[in-house]
Amino acid sequence: MPVPRTDPGFARDPLPAMLSWATDPADPPVRRLAADRYLVTDSSLGRRILASTQEPFEATSAPFGAVPGWIPGHPDTRPVLTALGSALDTALTGPRTVATPALSCWPDDASLRYLHRFGSALLPAASPAVFRAVAAALTRSYALDRRPGRAAALRRRFAVSRANAALQGYLLRHRATPGNPFLAALLDRFGDPQTAALALHGALGAVCRAAATALSWTVLLDHGWRPGLAAGTVLPAATPTAPAGDRVREALRLWPVAWMLHRRARTTTELGGLPVRPGDHLLVCTFAMHRSRRVWSDADDYRPERWADPPAGYRDGYLPYGTGPGACVGARFVNAAAAQLLDSLPGLAAPIRLLDERPVLGAIATPPRFQLTTASCDT
Questions:
Q1: What structural domains and CATH numbers belong to the chain?
Q2: Which domain of life is it from (predicted)?
């Protein structure tokens, strides 16, 4: 069975190819990107792949993929994920750090807002210096996404090293402090504060960036943004009428933060009639799955009101956080926190000015930068 190929420039710039697919985004169900790389857009095949994190398909799961010995879905990882989920639930209702930065340049400053508003649940009694170090690493991550290059990579590496060192010192100081199950689970799982700090930093960065990205996409789409608008365009004041939660769901349908989910084949197997070899990369594209015209009417339009009566069977192909044992543990927090901030932050309906023309489809789907016209942003 032949495997359809996509535009050869897909790896360098995937957005034009995905937006230009004239047929249903889920047809064909598998596209070949390279000899060992396949793009999967069919929801049934995608669910089958994502259900595995070890055999036959292996996963490395952000934010813990860089941590030695971390296997998503393994029994050893469950206590950490359970504790993280509980800490995030607590963050929605628990005490928050008082000092919060002004929201000016989105989505960068939105990440910092999440860190300072909810960070006390994950970093109880952390000093301002710890928060500053983590915030600097977050800022450098955004800069690297937008302007990849050696200098940006070195600056990010330096900022990440400083944040890891600050978090390691924090864990050493609070190692004997009872009452925080998440920190206790990290130290129990990894043993030494250095590795635990690496995992803690990964969790903080992933949660803050995912939550800020979901919020930023929602604000941007509320104002009528669409691909192709030039930097400098001013979009008029938003007049959303749908509930905040439905607007977040619709924003994540069109622009899922985890727009591409990765697995690697460990054994020879079969996928949709195709032979898959050990080492082959399988890329499950939720961006395409969420725009299936078989499921959604006006699939490319932002219509939050559709969530009052979503189409039958939509859950099979709506996977903004993945599915199975490797799914994002912070899914509930991301949606709830974004809706909470949409309802509580002042001025979000004000006109906005676009600072970039295009989103960035890297590790996550990051919206183009923008600012509320009531704020200033250093571009």
A1: 14-372 (1.10.630.10)
A2: Bacteria
